[in-house]
Amino acid sequence: MMTRKHMSEVPMIQRVAAYLAILVGYFFYCYNFVIIDYVRPYIVDAYDGINLADTAQFYTWQSIGALIGALSCAWFATRFGKKSTLIAITALNGGATIVNMMFTDYAMWAAMRFIIGISLGGYFTVAVSMMIGLFPSNVRGKLTAFASSMFSVALMAMGAYAAFISSIDAPWQSLMWVGGLPPLVAAAVMLFILPSDKKVIAYGEEEQAKQAESGEEVKKGTWGEMLSKPYRVITISCLLLAGLNFYGYQFFSGFVTTYLKDVRQFDGATIGIIFSISAFGSLFGAWVWGAVADKYGRKVNAFGFILAGVMASVFFVAPSDLMIGSLNALAILGLVYNFGLSASAVWGGYFSELFPAHLRNYGAALFHGGRIIGMWAPMVLVFIQERSDLETAMWGSPIVWIVAGLLWLSLPETLKTGIFYKKKDQQQAAA
């Protein structure tokens, strides 16, 4: 039997290069997740037979695919290895995006967004699981949080590139091509620099490796085991927490521009300023919360959700003409709100750490698994709005964030030096 070396024996330069390669793939995971929202009006104008309502369904199909991809790729990574699974789904992400551009009818666009969604949900699950195995636990929060900040970076890059292609009168399809070609290159690079989990023991998987070397049967995780008695409560809590995250986001961020326009009666320029300044909070917030999670523990970040709930409440009652310096107060409140929400940037690594090594892939998949609950959020908000008004419906957001923060605090702490760490909790989680 081949003896595997530990990840600490892999040269630091290779591990950093591997992280950067995964990070590039993560950027395009984020980019291709949100590109459908950006190109929606162009699709309606360009293709006969596809209307605005149809384009909204593309996101739904993509979300269903992401759910399936997250759940299934956890199993594939466990059976066939993280490296080979990650390379395959990175290539699928790029290849399917390019193939998508060959069709002009609703049925094929829906099918391709579903396939792309599978690759996106799968990418998050396997990338996070592999990423946290490259380095020790005291830097995982920062590593996963920085990766999560790629959503903000992708949005900014997409906006800048869209402005550029508009200035040179290039076709809107150029936005899609950018989402297709680089992932294929990233997949090829990963082939050469990602450490193979068949040859290298990742950080956090030492116990599993000892079992294999001693001739004991090595556990292979399953979803059935995730729902077995030792892990059932944590699994369901993580799914519910992820689902509440999607609800809180949709109840506020998903309709905030509509709220600012229809309820607050702001003009387009003011809405744009409030929106862009608010979004900046997510970018630097992810880095701050990553450092906090590594120093004080993963559960401390739960207070970010409570902060977001408070800020959302103040946002709704603040006067429209209240200024802080030269900025509308709503822009500052929105910035702090998004700063609080970015506390969840550590979830990929944290959800993995809550379970033993053989269930790590499944733990990471729980984030997208929350879509089982969260995919209904827009319809729930519209249901409430139709029976009251938009502002009343959006008040669900601060309630959801505070409940989610309290639920997060009920989960075990995984960082041994964290201020909420209890050895008893960890013994129960590892049972």
Automatic annotation (TrEMBL):
<feature type="transmembrane region" description="Helical">
    <location>
        <begin position="109"/>
        <end position="134"/>
    </location>
</feature>
<keyword id="KW-0472">Membrane</keyword>
<feature type="transmembrane region" description="Helical">
    <location>
        <begin position="230"/>
        <end position="249"/>
    </location>
</feature>
<dbReference type="InterPro" id="IPR011701">
    <property type="entry name" value="MFS"/>
</dbReference>
<protein>
    <submittedName>
        <fullName>MFS transporter</fullName>
    </submittedName>
</protein>
<feature type="transmembrane region" description="Helical">
    <location>
        <begin position="330"/>
        <end position="350"/>
    </location>
</feature>
<feature type="transmembrane region" description="Helical">
    <location>
        <begin position="300"/>
        <end position="318"/>
    </location>
</feature>
<feature type="transmembrane region" description="Helical">
    <location>
        <begin position="269"/>
        <end position="288"/>
    </location>
</feature>
<feature type="transmembrane region" description="Helical">
    <location>
        <begin position="362"/>
        <end position="383"/>
    </location>
</feature>
<dbReference type="InterPro" id="IPR051084">
    <property type="entry name" value="H+-coupled_symporters"/>
</dbReference>
<keyword id="KW-0769">Symport</keyword>
<dbReference type="Pfam" id="PF07690">
    <property type="entry name" value="MFS_1"/>
</dbReference>
<feature type="domain" description="Major facilitator superfamily (MFS) profile">
    <location>
        <begin position="18"/>
        <end position="416"/>
    </location>
</feature>
<keyword id="KW-1133">Transmembrane helix</keyword>
<feature type="transmembrane region" description="Helical">
    <location>
        <begin position="16"/>
        <end position="39"/>
    </location>
</feature>
<dbReference type="InterPro" id="IPR020846">
    <property type="entry name" value="MFS_dom"/>
</dbReference>
<keyword id="KW-0813">Transport</keyword>
<feature type="transmembrane region" description="Helical">
    <location>
        <begin position="146"/>
        <end position="168"/>
    </location>
</feature>
<keyword id="KW-0812">Transmembrane</keyword>
<feature type="transmembrane region" description="Helical">
    <location>
        <begin position="85"/>
        <end position="103"/>
    </location>
</feature>
<dbReference type="InterPro" id="IPR036259">
    <property type="entry name" value="MFS_trans_sf"/>
</dbReference>
<feature type="transmembrane region" description="Helical">
    <location>
        <begin position="395"/>
        <end position="415"/>
    </location>
</feature>
<keyword id="KW-1003">Cell membrane</keyword>
<feature type="transmembrane region" description="Helical">
    <location>
        <begin position="174"/>
        <end position="194"/>
    </location>
</feature>
<feature type="transmembrane region" description="Helical">
    <location>
        <begin position="59"/>
        <end position="78"/>
    </location>
</feature>
